[in-house]
Amino acid sequence: MPDVKPFAWFLGRSLSTLREEMTPAYDRLVQEIRGRTVRLSVDAEPDHVIEESGSIRVVSTPLSFDVEFRASRPVLKALVGGRLTFLDGLLRDRIHLQGSIEDLLVFHDALQTYLRGAVRCPSMPGLLGEFEASAETPP
Amino acid sequence: MRNDGASPFVETSSVVNDRANHARAIDRAIVYGDWLRRAVAGSGRPHKEWLHFCLYGRTADALVNFSVVDDARADRDPDREFARTTLLFRDQRWRGAVTSFASHDCELRPGEVGLRMGSHSLHYRDGVYALTAGLPDGSAHVDVTLRPTTMPSIVHNVQVGDGPPINWLVVPRLVAEGRVRIDDRVHDVSGTLAYHDHNWGHFGWGRDFAWEWGYGLPDDPANPWTIVFVRLSDRAHTRALMQGVFLWKGHREQRVFRDHDLRVSHRGLRRAREICKIPPVMALIHPQLATDIPSQLGFRGEAEGDAIDGTFECGDVAQVVIPNDDDFGVTVINEVSGRLAVEGRIHGEDMELNGRAIFEFLGA
């Protein structure tokens, strides 16, 4: 039975994959989130995405943040599976976003850059499948 | 050996009116024309190739697209290619998926009519295609044989905007035998008419081109007429690069209306309440429901005493959303089901065709 992989596992590896397989998207992402901290909480696992010396790091230590995104694994799966739009997730309170308007706009652009890069990475479907499969088989 | 000098796409008069010879001529043209090309080493630009099948049955539809495309990323590996199937099924609603296959799980042999990608396969033997494919979650599957009943038409060097030309082979009418299963509903599609084409060439998604394309097969299989409509334009849809209506009667191509023979019109805009996005993850990037699909597409062809009038009424929409090769944008292929009605007069004979149809509208 596979271990349940935390969201930080997927996030860290997906960013490494983006850097390796779709470098222009990674570089653009670095530029977009530069100077900001994004807190991502999936099933109460808070992780923080920060830019540091031209790299994006995922850290779990509590930090102040500029934008917070909160959702559950089932919501992430529904988003990836096309069964829920980002807007509907927000309007139905299944996604929580917090931050100033300016920072939320930056987050939106950075998320789009991440997604548009991710869909061009040959290894990303396998990585996502591994993450989803681990979540479906709790120990 | 394929090239014996004579074009397999041109029949001689001795084979006309002979059903067995027609079948042999069609078979020969497919063997000579519908083979897998794949990239030529050192060509420099990413090569794309796909084989497309549409089955529009009484109670269920299936679209199957096998594609082999070169790595198009900026720092691409020139020897890397991706094998994928894009599948769409519909009985109560559209559903579908794009599935990628590792190279070790594929049989892709240049020169062969047929291929295998995982458990999805296409084989051609004794004048019949055998096609098997299904969604990865197991919710839909197609397992059919398809017997071509029209001569293929092959068009080389179709200019698409600012890139090198592409090539197109079309087999517009095949007769299916077999089944489509969607959830636990098994649809017998035996006797249903189907469509196939094969495209290959060097071009990039997102470049300055778009297409409108559709085919029409009659509800009544006894009706001998088959039609294909195609129009290539710039990406803004303001300049037509080429357009044509191809008309077959029985197994033979009967008439082509080209470019200035044709007037194409759009009426209204199709406003969909929901759109199935394939692959589903692309809905995160392209969630919008607004499209530039017309609610009705009309065409009128007129030349040398022949005339044809057609109207396609757009219905349900599914979108295949493809990442552009040279930027972070996407190209959207709108697969639109609907009804096509055509009437005209060809070589002194009245013709009429009514049937369900699928048109594609490529948009930004």
- What is the share of helical residues of chain A? 40-55%
Question: What Rg of chain A is obtained from the alpha carbons, in whole angstroms?
Answer: 14 Å
Number of domains of chain A: 1
Uncertain residue segments of chain A: none
Task: Describe the protein's topology.
The complex is a heterodimer of chains A (139) and B (364).
Chain A: H1 7-21, H2 23-33, E1 37-42, E2 45-52, E3 55-59, E4 67-71, H3 73-80, H4 86-91, E5 96-99, H5 101-118, H6 124-136
Parallel strand pairs in A: 1-4
Antiparallel strand pairs in A: 1-2, 2-3, 4-5
Chain B: H1 19-33, E1 47-56, E2 61-70, E3 81-90, E4 94-101, E5 106-107, E6 114-117, E7 120-125, E8 128-134, E9 140-148, E10 153-158, E11 166-182, E12 185-188, E13 193-202, E14 210-216, E15 225-233, E16 240-249, E17 252-258, E18 262-267, E19 276-278, E20 296-303, E21 306-323, E22 330-346, E23 349-363
Fill in the keyword field for this structure:
heterodimer, A: 139 residues, alpha+beta, Nonspecific Lipid-transfer Protein, Chain A, B: 364 residues, AttH-like fold, 13-stranded antiparallel β-sheet, ten-stranded mixed β-sheet, 23 strands, 56% strand
Overview of this protein structure:
The complex is a heterodimer of chains A (139) and B (364). Chain A has 139 residues and is α+β, with helices and mostly antiparallel strands. Chain A has 6 helices and 5 strands; from the N terminus they run H-H-E-E-E-E-H-H-E-H-H. Chain A is globular. Chain A starts with 6 loop residues before the first helix and ends with a helix. The mean pLDDT of chain A is 91. Chain B has 364 residues and is mainly β. Chain B folds into 2 domains: 1-204, AttH-like fold, CATH 2.40.370.10; 205-364, AttH-like fold, CATH 2.40.370. In chain B, the strands form 2 sheets. In chain B, strands 1, 2, 3, 4, 5, 6, 7, 8, 9, 10, 11, 12 and 13 form a 13-stranded antiparallel beta sheet that branches. The chains are: A alpha+beta (139), B mainly beta (364). Chain A binds chain B through residues 21-25, 28, 79-83, 85-87, 112-113, 115-117, 119-120, 122, 125, and chain B through 71, 73-75, 82, 100, 277, 279-285, 287, 323, 328, 330.
